[in-house]
């Protein structure tokens, strides 16, 4: 029987909303065939982040070479750093019938949509923009002018929500994970993805 | 704040697939605001079925009066009996922000789609048509020519699957319920249904 392709799930949302935390929680509790696609980035590792686990940390020169060689599904410059998704892993894993989770910035997500319109786009939002600001301040790794810069970016990004399939509020990480799991289950049940199986069933009998 | 409307969930599928069993199981375990819309029918009650709980059992004359008075969201004649959905309960409940579950035959489901294109259409299928036949025989309430009639109808109905949003295999009732619950959760997260909330958030701050 023909191998059913996996689903590409793109998790995005404003910077500071907690994409990384939610992504890690999903991968930790995951009880089905979900694979995380590790991004490449030129930004400095934060405390506890490991190369090849959280990101592939690259120099600007290395990153630009990947762009030139068409090795990236998407890439973006965000607050002075590059972020991108190595394309080969995504394609190979989907072909094996496994789902792939991408956690990327909003600019990158929209690029993925042009290549994978059948992907599932999930937009993670904070309970309010005020809470977003608080989170960014409390992280304490950003200067004040950077916080303001991020807030402006967040307002713009929420306007971009319209390009996504689903909107999940990140009020509690566990609740957000439950919702994302439900989305993945539901997407596997969408008629478009499985109709052909039943057409075959009719042919056989 | 403006009351968000509930979602109309239409559960349908071939006769004999177990729509009633799955519907009862969902309603029994339901831990959120899901309301079952009781259908009207002219068919005879099966053992254990109660008027006003499983169906509103009507005479043909009563049913025809409901059709004439536009009191039905949809109605269909199926294997010599009428089935229909009283419209008022559905509209009132959705307006209160509660989800409504309809469990109806395939003909009726397609009529609902013309009135509620934003409803969520779930098609329940048996693991195989062979198993469908077995189930119908084992129910033992049908003569053999009726079984053949139902099998032909089922093949046609599977062709109709294409009109639905989701396809759920009823291999185990509990698994089917889990999947339908996931669909309902995911549908509440669809961008189309909640984007306006976030647009408002931007206006306020």
From TrEMBL, chains A, B:
<dbReference type="InterPro" id="IPR027417">
    <property type="entry name" value="P-loop_NTPase"/>
</dbReference>
<dbReference type="InterPro" id="IPR008144">
    <property type="entry name" value="Guanylate_kin-like_dom"/>
</dbReference>
<protein>
    <recommendedName>
        <fullName>Guanylate kinase</fullName>
        <ecNumber>2.7.4.8</ecNumber>
    </recommendedName>
</protein>
<keyword id="KW-0067">ATP-binding</keyword>
<feature type="domain" description="Guanylate kinase-like">
    <location>
        <begin position="6"/>
        <end position="185"/>
    </location>
</feature>
<dbReference type="GO" id="GO:0004385">
    <property type="term" value="F:GMP kinase activity"/>
</dbReference>
<dbReference type="InterPro" id="IPR017665">
    <property type="entry name" value="Guanylate_kinase"/>
</dbReference>
<comment type="similarity">
    <text>Belongs to the guanylate kinase family.</text>
</comment>
<dbReference type="GO" id="GO:0005524">
    <property type="term" value="F:ATP binding"/>
</dbReference>
<keyword id="KW-0418">Kinase</keyword>
<dbReference type="GO" id="GO:0005829">
    <property type="term" value="C:cytosol"/>
</dbReference>
<dbReference type="InterPro" id="IPR020590">
    <property type="entry name" value="Guanylate_kinase_CS"/>
</dbReference>
<keyword id="KW-0808">Transferase</keyword>
<comment type="function">
    <text>Essential for recycling GMP and indirectly, cGMP.</text>
</comment>
<keyword id="KW-0547">Nucleotide-binding</keyword>
<keyword id="KW-0963">Cytoplasm</keyword>
<feature type="binding site">
    <location>
        <begin position="13"/>
        <end position="20"/>
    </location>
    <ligand>
        <name>ATP</name>
    </ligand>
</feature>
<dbReference type="InterPro" id="IPR008145">
    <property type="entry name" value="GK/Ca_channel_bsu"/>
</dbReference>
<dbReference type="Pfam" id="PF00625">
    <property type="entry name" value="Guanylate_kin"/>
</dbReference>
């Amino acid at each position: 029987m023909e191998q059913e392709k996996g689903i590409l799930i793109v998790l995005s949302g404003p910077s500071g909303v907690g994409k990384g935390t939610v992504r890690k929680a999903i991968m930790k509790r995951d009880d089905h065939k979900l694979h995380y696609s590790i991004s490449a980035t030129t930004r400095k590792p934060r405390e506890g982040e490991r190369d090849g686990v959280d990101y592939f940390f690259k120099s600007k020169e290395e990153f630009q070479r990947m762009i030139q060689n068409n090795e990236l599904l998407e890439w973006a410059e965000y607050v002075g750093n590059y972020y991108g998704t190595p394309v080969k892993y995504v394609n190979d894993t989907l072909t094996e019938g496994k789902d792939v989770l991408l956690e990327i910035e909003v600019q990158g997500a929209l690029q993925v949509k042009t290549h994978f319109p059948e992907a599932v786009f999930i937009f993670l939002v904070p309970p309010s923009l005020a809470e977003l600001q608080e989170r960014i301040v409390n992280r304490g790794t950003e200067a004040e002018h950077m916080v303001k810069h991020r807030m402006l970016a967040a307002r713009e990004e929420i306007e971009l929500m319209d390009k996504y399939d689903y909107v999940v509020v990140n009020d509690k990480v566990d609740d957000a994970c439950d919702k994302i799991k439900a989305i993945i289950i539901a997407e596997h049940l969408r008629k478009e993805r499985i109709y052909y199986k039943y057409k075959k069933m009719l042919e056989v009998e």
